[in-house]
Amino acid sequence: MTIRVIIVDDQAMVRAGFAALLAAQSDIDVVGEAPDGKKGVEVGRSTHPDVVLMDVRMPEMDGLAAARALLNPPPGVVHLPKVLMLTTFDVDDYVYEALRAGASGFLLKDAPPADLISAVRVVASGEALLAPSVTRRLIADFAKQRPAPPKDQSLQLNGLTPRETEVLVLIARGLSNQEIAERLVLAEQTVKTHIGRVLSKLGLRDRAQAVIFAYESGLVTPGEQ
Fold this sequence. Notes:
A five-stranded parallel β-sheet has the order 2-1-3-4-5, with helices on both faces. The chain is of the alpha/beta class. Helices cover 52% and strands 12% of the residues. The radius of gyration is 17 Å and the shape is globular. Helix 3 packs parallel to helix 4 (93-101), helix 8 crosses helix 11 and helix 9 (177-184) packs across helix 10. The longest helix is centred in the last third of the chain and has 15 residues, at 188-202.
């Protein structure tokens, strides 16, 4: 199955470079480009991409606003792409808010080409791009600065079983499904089932939001291992 991608970035050279790199892959098809967030939303609505590569800082509409528009569309719009944020900064409040809004992860613009290709495939498969330590540090750094968790988050945690809570903690610490399975001596499919129940009970979109929820609810303390 071919992964449909659009690239939203205000720098033409960046768009051209990413497009050439991705289009050279047999399983990736670049179906559109846009120079700003506003046009990015329009292109996204018309081309129905699987993955949107979204720059954070752009004129007209920044990447955060565009990501929110794509991930929380108006009534009647049913297509929800995966959004991968692109940034030149490894710690950026825009990126943090984009993850909270439902973006599947973020990638530094100067990352190696192989990382970009891999990131598109990972996000398209439904996983959140949370493996790089920089992502966990970004979430942890901003979680430190946030006030005490709202009571409703604590109440939501009470709805999880002990095993589901344990799985959520390990997700927040950056472990993959396979690593969680090994840690808890479970089948990987069982881990996927637990994750699905956690996301459903907490009303979360994906692993990225699960990590943020774990920090903001106080379940996981920044700096814990």
